[in-house]
Specification:
heterodimer, A: alpha+beta, Gyrase A, domain 2, 2 domains, 4 helices, about 15% helix, about 35% strand, globular, B: alpha+beta, FAD/NAD(P)-binding domain, Arc Repressor Mutant, subunit A, seven-stranded mixed beta sheet, six-stranded mixed beta sheet, 27 helices, oxidoreductase (chain B), TrmE/GcvT-like (chain B)
Chain lengths: ~210, ~1000
């Protein structure tokens, strides 16, 4: 009997070359990390069930899903606003995930669509991150306009993306999450790298935590 | 770096006499003042012009370095190849256009006045042969009488066939400026976004004042300055501000701006466009001032700046006067003369004549005298020095002449003398090697007019000032017609305060800096009428007589004038010429200038390289691409990829020894038909349709019924546009009571998703249905061929029943795969064979491809590409993109019976229109050449046998073709009038594009297994 192996492949298997790119002098201006092993479920309240959906979410995640463009961190997942009465539930992929409960908790009040493989997540940080981001994102990422927890559904290279800001990194720099459609990941990664080369780029991948 | 203005006098014997002959090779920096100027004398730079090596200093422009080296002749003009020099010191320069750099970086039409000098800069004059001094094409000047306005229109009319073959190549050879590089641009270009409350455009006195005010008030400010440093005219004309020298004030102002974290000053950044919603475009010349950008650095960057308010302080441009010989090398704008002397410590001439009709021009006298130059004479139609200057000591010796300059005599390298015609008509000749001209100042109204705002004429300054500026924009300073330093500072400050306040920033903006309010008096003089060519548009060689000729020939409207004479259509967009052209037209038609009107202002304000607009989006990065989950695996196998929309799809998988694509594709098809093959179809659009009303929703979207579809079943669906034409097709499966999985064609995935969202949100908001694109979530493969079931049984858990009973045709459900993952399996067939589509989460797509290869090895499993997919669908008569072409109805496609009569759906009513149900519509049929070895080609026309092809006899066309390995001949699908009743008829296939004409038989479009036995097998 043949053994069939099911190795999960990142869409960035070719394009992501870990290490330093572009200008090599000094500290890397931009760090770019692919976050692998994510779970992502689109939760859409059914007609007239937004309140029940919020209540169910509160029960499961310990927080209400955001009603404005924000990302909130709950018990087992981060909830990212993705439109009126809908949000993305995001967590690290793990064997003991509570995500299995989603279908049960939201039965009859919200529709779910598994997008864990439909999107690819990257994290951009570093002292020159905003300058690099300005080359492919039209968003105003200034602290006053886009503080930690802010989120936006936007586009890069005419391609839909979700962007949200995490808590600042240990170095005090802003951290931006970029969620792109899987089939575009290879292309957009190249765009991001090209935008960051002049600042020096450190690329890597990490498993979601 | 030393002071700003007030260069020390130089000894005349030392610097200026060196180039006395005018013919000798210029001694390096023969015209450089000994001190002063914003140049770094510790950093000498070598450069070459037309192969001659010279030196300049850091801080120079190419133009100022040429001036410092005594070079006057730098270009030949566009049409007449007249010798031209440097006219201005800014981005409005119409004459001193040179070719910079070499090889792949060669760039024509670079304004020497904006090109910053760098070491080893190489520039060449252009538009001349064999040399700048002896230009053969200057013979055009002798032919001038025939090269008048409208020359092309009048001369190159007939015969029409000469347009492309004779006239255009001839004109292109003779005209044009410079040659672009013929190699790919090796540099990187960027695009970036910036955001602010207040955008200040232009960093002169008014702009700095506005930025300081808005910045202090707490607004987020961006200040754009096209020059390499801020200061504007302060850098050239100095002045006293708040009791200190302009240079000191400037230093304080820039220091303060730098200290404000909410203010960003962008130099070398020219604003070129104003768009809706407060979006502005600017070009930053990041590395134009070095020979080659450093590693990973960009050459230029296009900024899109989103600003809540903007303050345009773009200054004013000095206006030439139209008189014969006004284009001679050595004729220069008075303000440019002062810039070269004061900012760059370079003397444009040793004996300078001044021709001015306004007070500002008179500043030039002092600047020249202070630098040790001589004023040959001042020609002012007003006849006397303005009161302010009468007291200036050096002026007592200056000859002041009334009247105007009526001719300029030149030597090889430029001005030798000027001819002045007095009011009494008497002329006198005055020796001079430079003529400084000032016809007044034109506020830079361009940006304020980009949204069709009309500028307003102001008599006091004889110029246009901004009218209705775009929303959110105000203008201040010289751009607003305020020409004194004091007024610029006040105006800028007030505009900065107001703009910041409108953005909610009301902090302490401080006081406006103070400076004196010079009186600016002008007596309009547009033209000195005398014999000889008097230029209006220097870059396009449009003369005063061209303007009056246009008027005589009826082209009086300014828009007609512009197009007939090409006035203002050159790369400088008429910055120095438009108002003069209007003035001459106004006089010729007896109207005022405002009555004559202005042409429409459009972006870009300054030339922008296409490369900069493209940014990274060039070559293979021209647009974003999408990769299928099995892409890298297919690449490993040597697949040839084809762009289908944004996707890169495997087109076929060549094997060693195969001589062409047809051989590979034929092998792939036969392998599927005889055994088993698979194809990545992940590119099909996939949509999760969720919620209790999902079935009702689909009933309204599709022409056929889906609410009745059983869970675990798939159905082919067709949707129409509102107008009754087919929009898209695909299979949709019901995975649960409240979960349908809808698929679309690859091409229409986006438009269909948009359409569905529109239906959900706008048409039927009452339906409880939710939609999400799941295209990227799933890797989906079609596995087809008689051995499909054998292959699947090897990879699917044995507990899953794949028999006809356990998994009938059009079944759809989850199955467990060996090794522990769950897949979705759909029994659907596009190829006509026994086939399944299997989907797994995208991350397992590559593993699935590898595992299918393992499982199918005993059967010789063959991966196949889009070509084989296309061949099999044509053999099977399945319609696809070429038939779903936006003009066909369901019935045209042979699917009319699918249209439910029991329900309403989008497109139902409109599909019933007479023309869409006419019996003579072109419908899908099969077609095969009578000669079995003939190749059929799509696009060929179908006409009845024996008739002459033409629009009246045309009955349709071939839509899709392939070589059918099963039938061993070329076959195709076609849209043919009344086609379904014509099976067996021989028609004529007419292909004028490829000069082919042959006969073919119309037949049933289902060439292969018409009973469908195989796919149900």
């Amino acid at each position: 009997m043949v053994d069939y192996l099911w190795n999960a492949q990142s869409p960035l298997q070719k394009e992501l070359v870990a290490g330093r790119h572009g200008v090599t002098a000094g500290q890397a201006g931009v760090t770019l990390t692919e976050i692998r092993g994510i779970m992502l479920v689109q939760v859409m309240a059914r007609r007239g069930k937004a309140v029940e959906t919020a209540k169910a979410a509160k029960k499961l995640f310990g927080v209400e899903p955001p009603s404005t463009p924000k990302a909130v961190i709950g018990k087992i997942a981060t909830l990212i606003w993705s439109g009126p009465d809908q949000f993305l539930a995001f967590a690290a992929r793990s064997a003991d995930s509570q995500f299995g409960k989603l279908a049960e908790v939201f039965a009859g009040i919200a529709s779910l669509s598994d997008q864990s493989d439909g999107r690819c997540l990257s994290q951009i940080s570093g002292p020159r991150a905003r300058e690099a981001l300005a080359k492919f994102s039209s968003l105003d990422l200034d602290d006053t306009m886009f503080p930690p927890g802010a989120t936006a559904t936007s586009s890069v290279d005419h391609t839909p993306v979700n962007i949200w800001r995490d808590a600042n990194g240990a170095d005090g720099e802003a951290v931006f999450n970029l969620l792109v459609f899987t089939s575009f990941a290879d292309s957009l990664w190249k765009t991001i790298v090209a935008s960051a080369l002049e600042y020096g780029l450190e690329a890597s991948s990490a498993h979601a935590e | 770096m030393s002071g700003y203005s007030g260069s020390e006098p130089l000894s005349r014997t030392a610097a200026l006499d060196a180039n006395a002959s005018g013919r000798a090779a210029p001694v390096s920096q023969s015209h450089r003042l000994r001190s002063g100027g914003l140049i770094d004398r510790q950093s000498p730079l070598q450069f070459s012009f037309d192969g001659k090596t010279m030196t300049g200093y850091a801080g120079d422009t190419l133009a100022s370095a040429l001036v410092a080296n005594g070079v006057k002749l730098v270009a030949r003009s566009f049409k007449y190849h007249r010798p031209r020099g440097i006219m201005t010191a800014g981005s409005e320069e119409p004459s001193a256009l040179v070719e910079m750099r070499t090889g792949a970086r060669r760039e024509p039409n670079t304004r020497a006045t904006t090109a910053e000098l760098y070491d080893r800069l190489m520039a060449n004059s252009q538009n001349r042969w064999p040399s700048l001094r002896r230009d053969f094409m200057s013979i055009n000047s002798l032919l001038a009488p025939i090269f008048v306005a409208g020359f092309y229109y009048k001369t190159f009319m007939w015969p029409a066939k000469f347009w492309e073959t004779v006239y255009e190549p001839m004109i292109r050879r003779a005209a044009g400026l410079g040659k672009s590089a013929e190699l790919p641009d090796p540099d990187h270009y960027d695009k970036a976004w910036a955001h602010c409350d207040v955008l200040v455009v232009g960093g002169g006195s008014a702009g700095l004042s506005a930025a300081l005010a808005a910045g202090r008030a707490g607004a987020r400010v961006i200040l754009c300055e096209e020059d390499s440093r801020v200061g504007g005219r302060l850098l050239s004309d100095g002045g006293d501000i708040d009791g200190m020298h302009a240079a000191d004030w400037l230093r304080r102002a820039t220091d303060e701006l730098a200290s404000l974290p909410n203010v960003r000053v962008m130099t070398r950044t020219a604003l070129f466009g104003v768009y809706d919603g407060g979006v502005y475009a600017a070009l930053e010349r990041v590395n134009d001032h070095v020979a080659v950008p450093g590693p990973h650095q960009v050459r230029q960057r296009v900024w899109r700046i989103v600003a809540r308010r903007s303050v345009v302080t773009a200054g004013a441009i000095e206006r030439p006067i139209v008189f014969p010989g006004n284009d001679r090398p050595g004729v220069m704008m008075a303000s440019a003369v002062r810039t070269y002397v004061n900012r760059f410590a370079a003397m444009p001439g040793r004996r300078v004549a001044l021709f001015t009709n306004n007070d500002d021009g008179w500043r030039t006298v002092e600047a020249i005298q202070r630098a040790g130059g001589e004023i040959a004479a001042v020609v002012d139609p007003r006849g006397r020095a303005p009161a302010k200057y009468q007291a200036v000591a050096g002026l007592r010796d200056v000859r002041v002449l009334t009247g105007g300059v009526s001719d300029v005599k030149r030597g090889v390298d430029g001005v030798r003398s000027i001819v002045v015609t007095g009011r009494n008509g008497l002329t006198q000749q005055i020796e001079a090697d430079c003529l400084a001209v000032s016809g007044g100042w034109n506020p830079n109204v361009g940006l304020s007019c980009f949204h069709r705002g009309k500028p307003v004429w102001r008599d006091a300054i004889a110029a246009f000032v901004p009218g209705d500026a775009p929303r959110g924009m105000t203008t201040a300073g010289a751009a607003n017609g305020e020409f004194s330093l004091g007024a610029c500072l006040r105006d800028g400050h007030a505009a900065g305060v107001a703009a910041a306040a409108e953005c909610g920033a009301a902090g302490n903006a401080g006081e406006a800096a103070e400076a004196c309010d010079d009186i600016y008096a002008i007596s309009p003089l547009w033209q000195v009428k005398a014999k000889g060519k008097a230029f209006v548009d220097f870059q396009h060689d449009v003369t005063a007589s061209d303007v009056t000729l246009a008027q005589r020939e009826g082209f009086e409207s300014v828009e007609h004038l512009k197009r007939y004479t090409t006035l203002g259509m050159a790369t400088d967009q008429g910055k120095t010429s438009n108002v003069n052209g209007l003035a001459i037209m106004a006089e010729a038609t007896g109207r005022t200038i405002p009555e004559t009107g202005t042409t429409i202002y459009r972006p870009p304000y300054a030339p922008v390289a296409i490369g900069a607009l493209a940014g990274h989006h060039r070559d293979e990065n021209f647009h974003a691409w999408r990769l299928t989950p099995s892409h890298h695996w297919a690449a490993e196998l040597g697949a040839v990829f084809v762009d289908t929309g944004l996707w890169k799809r495997a087109q076929w998988y060549p094997k060693p020894g195969e001589k062409d694509w047809l051989e590979s594709v034929t092998r792939e098809v036969l392998s599927v038909r005889n055994s088993v093959g698979f194809c990545d179809v992940s590119t099909l659009g996939k949509v999760d349709v969720l919620g209790p009303d999902a079935g009702t929703f689909l009933d309204r979207v599709y022409i056929n019924t889906f609410s009745s579809l059983a869970v675990g079943k798939a159905r082919y669906g067709l949707m129409l546009r509102e107008d009754g034409i087919v929009m898209d097709d695909g299979t949709t499966s019901r995975l649960a009571e409240d979960h349908y999985f809808l698929t679309t064609t690859t091409a229409k995935a986006g438009p269909v998703m948009q359409h569905l969202e529109f239906c959900r949100q706008v048409l039927w908001p009452d339906l409880d249905v939710q939609l999400t694109s799941a295209t990227d979530q799933w890797a989906q493969f079609s596995i087809a061929g008689p051995k499909t079931r054998d292959l699947l049984q090897a990879v699917i858990e044995p507990s899953e029943d794949l028999s006809n009973e356990g998994f009938p045709f059009m079944g759809a459900r989850e199955v467990k795969l060996r090794g522990g993952i769950v897949a979705r399996l759909f029994r659907i067939s596009f190829s006509g064979e026994m086939a399944f589509e299997m989907s797994v989460p995208a991350c397992y797509g590559e593993a699935l491809a590898r595992n299918l290869m393992i499982a199918g090895k005993p059967f010789g499993v063959t991966p196949y590409g889009t070509e084989a997919l296309g061949v099999m669908r044509i053999e099977k008569g399945h319609v696809a993109g070429p038939e779903l072409n936006g003009t066909t109805t369901a019935d045209d496609l042979g699917l009319g019976k699918m249209m439910s009569k029991k329900k309403d759906f989008i497109g139902r009513v409109m599909a019933g229109r007479e023309a869409l149900t006419a019996p003579n519509r072109q419908v899908v049929v099969g077609v095969k050449p009578v000669d079995p070895v003939r190749r059929l080609r799509s696009g060929a026309h179908v006409v009845p046998k024996g008739v002459i092809p033409g629009p009246e006899t045309d009955q349709g066309y071939v839509t899709s073709v392939c070589f059918s390995p099963v039938l061993a001949q070329w076959i195709g699908l076609a849209l043919v009038e009344r086609g379904r009743g014509r099976f067996g008829e021989i028609v004529r296939i007419h292909d004028p594009l490829r000069s082919e004409d042959y006969e073919a038989e119309i037949c049933n479009p289902v060439f292969y297994d018409p009973e469908g036995v195989r796919q149900r097998g």
